[in-house]
């Protein structure tokens, strides 16, 4: 349990909100009364989502943002303050993948994934946390992944590393920010129907299909609703299917046996 947030009248900023989980979360926040700055690297997509929100009777503003630039995140903060008078909710949602055998991944693959998936949150913390701490209220949502809890993705090591870091960062933030009246939610989806394939870079020769857990695939809209409910309820962890929880329990019970079983699956 972290700190719940009443979304009616809240000012919200969502990155990567032009499609997928970000779009779904922005719409879910707006349905609960939040006024949303919808940001994306693709301004047309951000504008389309903002138009959906306003057409449904909500308030939204679209802005292009590159999360590798702290100045762009500061512009989102300033736009939310100017348009809606306050910032209460920040969702850090941008993510990319680099696929390839571990021995084939160059530094550039690691640097790009970590810069976007992890360092964007560090930049967001510098931009938004002083404001939330000063007002002693608010909520931060970080989109991680089941890959941040279960390291099945040996063909996407930078992604796995970045999402494990996001989970740990989010947990530490929850402990730090909770006493200041600020909640933290970490979203860890497994299979989700999004267009993240657009953000995949392949290095070397892929010898097999990308590894994925045997978990059900859910619509992005489901994840958006789960994220919004967690913010309203003050919950930290969002899992998209119960199988993630079950596997975490299995792994925690006997890590050695769990790893032996995963290794055996690769040689079967």
From TrEMBL:
MF-aspect GO terms: oxidoreductase activity
Keywords: Oxidoreductase
Pfam families documented for this protein: adh_short (PF00106)
Source organism superkingdom: Bacteria
InterPro entries: NAD(P)-bd_dom_sf, Sc_DH/Rdtase_CS, SDR_fam
Entry keyword annotation includes Ion transport: no
PROSITE patterns assigned to the protein according to its UniProt record, in alphabetical order: ADH_SHORT
Keyword Heme set for record: no
Family designation: Belongs to the short-chain dehydrogenases/reductases (SDR) family.
Protein's name according to its UniProt entry: Short-chain dehydrogenase
